[in-house]
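User: quick one, fold this
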Amino acid sequence: MTDPVRIPLSPARFGLTEARGGEHLRAAGWWTERGPTEGSEPVLAALSRSPDPDLALRGVDRLREALGEYWSELAEALREDAVLRGRLLAVLGSSTALSDFLVTNPTRWRSLTDADRVDPATFAPLLVDAAVNGDDAVKSLRLEYRGLLCRIAAEDLAHVVEPELPYVHYDDVAALLSDLADAALRAALEVAQARVPRSEECSLAVIAMGKCGARELNYVSDVDVVFVGEGDLGVATRVASTLMQVAGQACFEVDAALRPEGKAGALVRTLDGHASYYRRWARTWEFQALLKARPVAGDRELGRRYLEVVRPLVWTAAEREDFVPDVRAMRRRVEDHVPADRTDRELKLGRGGLRDVEFAVQLLQLVHGRGDEELRISTTTQALAALGRGGYVGRSDAADFGRAYRFLRTLEHRLQLQRLLRTHLFPADDDEAGLRWLARATGIQAEGGLSEAQVLLAEFRRRANQVRRLHEKLFYRPLLQAVANVPSEALRLTTKQAAARLAALGYAAPDGALKHIEALTRGVSRRARIQGALLPVLLDLLATTPDPDGGLLAYRRVSEALAETPWYLRLLRDEGEVVERLATLLGTSKLVPDLLVRAPEVLRLLADTGELTGRDPITIGNPLRSAVSRHNDPERAVTAARSLRRHELLRVAAADLLGLVPLRTVCVSLSEVWVAVLGASLDAVVRAGGARPARIAVIGMGRLGGRELGYGSDADVMFVCEPEPGVSDAEAARYASSVVERVRRLLSAPSQDPALQVDADLRPEGRQGPLVRTLDSYRAYYAQWSELWEAQALLRARFIAGDADLGRRFIELVDPIRYPACGLDATSVREIRRIKARVEAERLPRGADPSTHTKLGRGGLADVEWTVQLLQLQHAAEVPSLRTPSTVRGLRAAAEAGLLPESDAAELLEAWTLATRARNAVVLVRGKPGDQLPTAGRDLAGVAAVMGHPPGTDPGEFVEHYRRTARRARAVVERVFYGS
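Assistant:
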């Protein structure tokens, strides 16, 4: 048996595509005709992992030629030393500029063999020594600077080629590059001082700004600086100018355009000159730039004093007029300057780019850092982490923002390393080679059937979209403007000062308010920090409401009740409109906070007006019926119905208080929710009872029948039943009565919610009559015994729940009674007037003011409703449009039919609408039913505010407006109803 023929390995196996790849490998001693030489496999494997294996191999070949007879030492070291192998091949495969440097200075490869991390403490001694002692200071400084830059890049990239080597975090790389720039500035200053005569006659401090100041410098970047001088400023200016020239020739461009007045201003200013400028003339963006100021070279004491002057100014910048809009406008201007065809590829300035992160973080810092010193950090990633810890940014948002920022900065670093040119442009989608190289240089590998280029492109788009989304969420957060409007001193007050400020804002009990604030912000938890950021804004917002003290107490109650709800404070922090709306609700209403602690999910709706105002009010009960129908146990069903009613009641109340829905929507919504609760409860009890000897229908009466229910209204109803075949009327009535009694008992069980009172007093014979009658019993009663008041009550009858066919037939039964064919004779009209007068005299509570009693007072609800009902009894038989249980529709129908002058109808409609809204407002403000308008105090202020009375004016004007409207309506009632 013959041995198989052995096929030699091809250089292409190691990612090499160039024709001369094999030739270069053989020249290096790593390849023969039969394949790799002994011991060279690790080198070839590392070469295959290089971002560009062909580029790396060409660099190796150039080094071989440059080293000549010394090549063998490097070749052997590459075989044996994984650290050197990873660093050198990564650099050669990533950067043509650093390859050129190594070829020009071939012995510099030895600096890559040190297994220890690069030490920034050695930067300044090396650079200063090279600059001061070199024959040509600029050339010596350039050489040493480039060598250290190569060492940082090698350490940064090595793990891509040799995965077992340590990964160097982006933050560490940026800090090393900044430290290197600091050292270069110090060396350039030493050279400048040596070159400029009489330099000892001045002191100069070099203040790093921008990315260098924040210790987040790129591989290739201008270094922004500001100069502060003492002594002879002419000499100091020459020193500063020479420093810029030396550093520019040797290392990087030094840009002093961030100085006061920019390029038109003096290059060097005294400390007093800087202070004067920033206090009087500086624009918003200049304080934003000062956020990153850091002394890096020259007179340390002068640099320290400079920071002492400018830092306090930075942390009051947010109080400047239009500060937040100015910062936002600047970001838009920067973005507008990016060419349209590059905006999606521009890593730095484009949409979803680095500036989106930096502007958002800086704006949040400048606004919230006034009261929280832990936010006073210049480095973007560290500041973002602090914002997350402090609760100013959500934990997940901070983490996502930070990861995306580091990813984009890493891409920027890799792109700049290629040729050591300042670039921020991501490769085009069709640049397959460029994308592949960048992916490999970043450590991205092919996965899931996608190439490296495709994985990189997908990740870049995902991160850019993530950045843009978070930028718009944080940068345009409405709460920022509100926080910025709070004076800084209000964020850091002593107890005495805080009490005085609260009193000035309108808090009646400042000491009590302080206790609430202390309870909410006690400790160092993230929750306390978020509350600390929210409360200054909330206190100002509550101060504009009728009851700031009650609002703050309510806010504390809600916050304590929802303390363990993870989204509560996040919602307030991220949605400025929620804070504003919540302050309005809590500072106006006692009903809302009571409901809110038991239906907190409604709080989320404050961020979405469409969700808050809800769907068609006629269909509002459908979800409740559907949810309750899943429960077989009546008690569980009623509990579910209560919960859903609570949700809807709070939603409607919030939308009403905020002025987002009309009165009809409020009344219909409240009525249909009641109908749904009653119907769902009845269905649940019937389902649980098994056999059904009778059908049951529920008839809505009063304001429930007219779909005009208010927050404090009872549910007026009647119950009708009909026996199934073979069942006697008595058995049917007993069964129906037991079902209805159980429904009433379940609904009236003790609860913290507004009561669910089922009032059946409008049934035949009132409280003395049976709770449930059969349809035939109703027919017999109405045929023989019906009284006029019962016909009047039936005007608002409407089937609402139970058996629909039975309900329809009941309505057909009562139509002839409530719409009498011959109308009313004079005796009946006198009787209705007599009953109305008696109601006014006997039912108005003792001590009540008839001019401001919304229900029974002069020109109130009863006046208007009885007037409409009289017209219906008189004319509905001949005017079909009058056959409606709705007071408003009946009033309009009477006017259209010519039964009532348009002006009279308008007066009555205005009074009814005003009384209904005012009655609802009383319940919202006081948290309990009431028909009497308050005439003084915070309750009156609250009711007036709910009614749309302008804040800051006398709420008593609202009471006078109500009285005038009621008087005009009463005059119509006297004329139309009483025939005066």
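User: anything notable?
Assistant: The chain is about 60% helix and 5% strand.
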